[in-house]
Amino acid sequence: MCFSGCSSDDNESQDAAVVVKTKDKALLLVTFGSTWDEPQKTYDGMLDTFKKEFPDADVYLSFTSTTCITRWGAKTGEYYATPDLWLNAIGKAGYKDVMVQSLHVIPGEEYTLLRDYYVKNFKKAYTSIPVVLGEPLLVSDEDIKEVGDALYTAFKPQLEKGEAVAFMGHGNPESSYSNANMSYQKIKTYMQTKCDKKMFVGTVDCEDMLIGAVITDLKNTVASNTTINLTPLMSIAGDHANNDMAGDYDKAEKAEDQSWKVQLNAAGYKVENSNCILKGLGDYPAVVNVWIRHLNEAIAAQE
């Protein structure tokens, strides 16, 4: 049976939430989205992994960003749909159980929207359908350890050569989501104290952890000519990773608005294009397993 969600928008994504019901359970993966090509491969890989882990469920993927939906659709003709459209279509299809898994990194603005708006509204509209929500990646101390250890293993060859690694997270405005932003501080502290002191974390949107703070940490830890590897602490390597992290010098931008690569080179460190590792967290199986554990924990808590 095939069902589609409805929307008051003219956005073509309203036709993208097409449910093909083959099982009694539905699993909706929810991410911000991207307009870049490589992240789509990351999403495909994560979809395949979740399908293998939850073979008794039909698995779907949702974007929360209408900008990403519109731009990706205009670019490729392929339209994703927002969680409300997917959940409405899933509800209409008559699933007996619904699972929703956040693919966000911290419990910040995007996850709050998913939990308190999309999932809450689904529960009100479909009171007879049980629904569980898996938490984002970095919530508990166990999460911090598992992800930190996975990243240390991934970058151990570079670290053992004396190179450093700086991870770019997204972050939220500190005034509203300080507790969520603490996840970045926690994983930085864990990696520097339990893994390797040459592992650093910054963000593009948390005032206390911008690139200036990363450079200060580097100055206090490594020599000025150290090679720095850059990689996103985000589910995918999209616009922020390609532009804000690894972008080339832009003469139209102020010095403080240049990419991390440009600013770190200007500060005396070595960052070549080959040191920009454009892999998202969703590309590391050990990290994806943490999201899977969260969903299994949510299911167990409901039973």
Automatic annotation (TrEMBL):
Co(2+) binds at residues 170, 240. One of its GO terms (molecular function) is metal ion binding. This is Cobalamin biosynthesis protein CbiK. The lineage of its organism: Bacteria, Pseudomonadati, Bacteroidota, Bacteroidia, Bacteroidales. InterPro entries: Anaerobic_Co-chelatase. The active site is at residue 170. It comes from the Bacteria. SUPFAM superfamilies: Chelatase.
